[in-house]
Amino acid sequence: ERAAAVAAPVTPGALADGTPVPLLANLGSPKGAGEALELGAEGVGLFRTEFLFLSSKEAPTVEAQQAEYTKLLAAFAGKKVVVRVLDAGADKPLPFLNDAEEENPALGLRGLRALRANEQILRDQLTALARADADSDADLWVMAPMVATVEETIFFTELAHELGLKTAGVMVEVPAVALLAERVLNHADFASIGTNDLTQYTMAADRLLGSVATLQDPWHPAVLKLIAAVGEAGRTHGKPVGICGEAAADPLLAVVLVGLGATTLSMAPAALADVRFSLGRYTIEDARRIAQAALDADDAPAARAAAQAAAAS
Ligand code: PEP
Ligand code: MG
């Protein structure tokens, strides 16, 4: 019986009332594709391209990048694949993008900021992605990390469209962009919330520092409020709002995130089964009610407890 259960096809992510919530994988290399698919990933919600080039001294060529992206897109033929352009800096320095010593690298020239300071590297990456896309039948979306302004949103999405990429969005990792999500989504085709950095910047707590780890908790109602604002803006514009930070891998928080307006969830493939099971226990009304209970709490532990109580009632 166990063998039969393992062999059964994994059902797509959905709430108890049938509302689809596509469950996607976070990947750092095309090598993880097979396992993600076996675990039921319906596509890729975050492909972290910087992991391909962490040891490169020089910027990768268009050809070298195209080869990697082609492998990734081939593995996910017919499925959605969201590729993030290089998120260099802070916890993920790349020698060819981050040369200056910074006192506060998390607040420095990282993500899209570093790419704008080295625009040819961004253009090469988008060109490599567009070429790989042209030869594949995956549904490629591209997004930029560490976006803080509407102007940066316009810069990135216009450049991506100009270089031949159909769907260009931004990550919501900086509170400023969550607060202006309504205006950001005038320009971006979608938003994807990176709860790791969004929590770090909302709580002013370094995600790498153990001594402030209790503040680095995505259950904090301040973080949830920002997510709700993005969900609301997504609904207004009829544009997708994904979650690709670690928060999506917490089975109960995943329900809360859907209640706040997330339309897809992306996570480490190992978390997919538990999240799929959890979503299947609640309707969209339940999810909204559980989310509201968490939003109304004063701090992260209280939000978790309130959500648990609401989920049980
Ligand atoms: C995030 O910040 O939540 C995110 C998904 O990006 P990373 O963890 O790679 O910074
Ligand atoms: Mg991030």
UniProtKB/TrEMBL annotation:
<feature type="binding site">
    <location>
        <position position="84"/>
    </location>
    <ligand>
        <name>phosphoenolpyruvate</name>
    </ligand>
</feature>
<dbReference type="GO" id="GO:0005737">
    <property type="term" value="C:cytoplasm"/>
</dbReference>
<keyword id="KW-0762">Sugar transport</keyword>
<keyword id="KW-0598">Phosphotransferase system</keyword>
<feature type="binding site">
    <location>
        <position position="173"/>
    </location>
    <ligand>
        <name>Mg(2+)</name>
    </ligand>
</feature>
<dbReference type="GO" id="GO:0016301">
    <property type="term" value="F:kinase activity"/>
</dbReference>
<feature type="binding site">
    <location>
        <position position="48"/>
    </location>
    <ligand>
        <name>phosphoenolpyruvate</name>
    </ligand>
</feature>
<dbReference type="GO" id="GO:0008965">
    <property type="term" value="F:phosphoenolpyruvate-protein phosphotransferase activity"/>
</dbReference>
<keyword id="KW-0418">Kinase</keyword>
<keyword id="KW-0963">Cytoplasm</keyword>
<comment type="similarity">
    <text>Belongs to the PEP-utilizing enzyme family.</text>
</comment>
<keyword id="KW-0670">Pyruvate</keyword>
<keyword id="KW-0813">Transport</keyword>
<feature type="binding site">
    <location>
        <position position="197"/>
    </location>
    <ligand>
        <name>Mg(2+)</name>
    </ligand>
</feature>
<comment type="function">
    <text>General (non sugar-specific) component of the phosphoenolpyruvate-dependent sugar phosphotransferase system (sugar PTS). This major carbohydrate active-transport system catalyzes the phosphorylation of incoming sugar substrates concomitantly with their translocation across the cell membrane. Enzyme I transfers the phosphoryl group from phosphoenolpyruvate (PEP) to the phosphoryl carrier protein (HPr).</text>
</comment>
<protein>
    <recommendedName>
        <fullName>Phosphoenolpyruvate-protein phosphotransferase</fullName>
        <ecNumber>2.7.3.9</ecNumber>
    </recommendedName>
</protein>
<dbReference type="GO" id="GO:0009401">
    <property type="term" value="P:phosphoenolpyruvate-dependent sugar phosphotransferase system"/>
</dbReference>
<keyword id="KW-0808">Transferase</keyword>
<dbReference type="GO" id="GO:0046872">
    <property type="term" value="F:metal ion binding"/>
</dbReference>
<keyword id="KW-0479">Metal-binding</keyword>
<feature type="binding site">
    <location>
        <begin position="196"/>
        <end position="197"/>
    </location>
    <ligand>
        <name>phosphoenolpyruvate</name>
    </ligand>
</feature>
<feature type="active site" description="Proton donor">
    <location>
        <position position="244"/>
    </location>
</feature>
<feature type="domain" description="PEP-utilising enzyme C-terminal">
    <location>
        <begin position="11"/>
        <end position="279"/>
    </location>
</feature>
<feature type="binding site">
    <location>
        <position position="207"/>
    </location>
    <ligand>
        <name>phosphoenolpyruvate</name>
    </ligand>
</feature>
<keyword id="KW-0460">Magnesium</keyword>
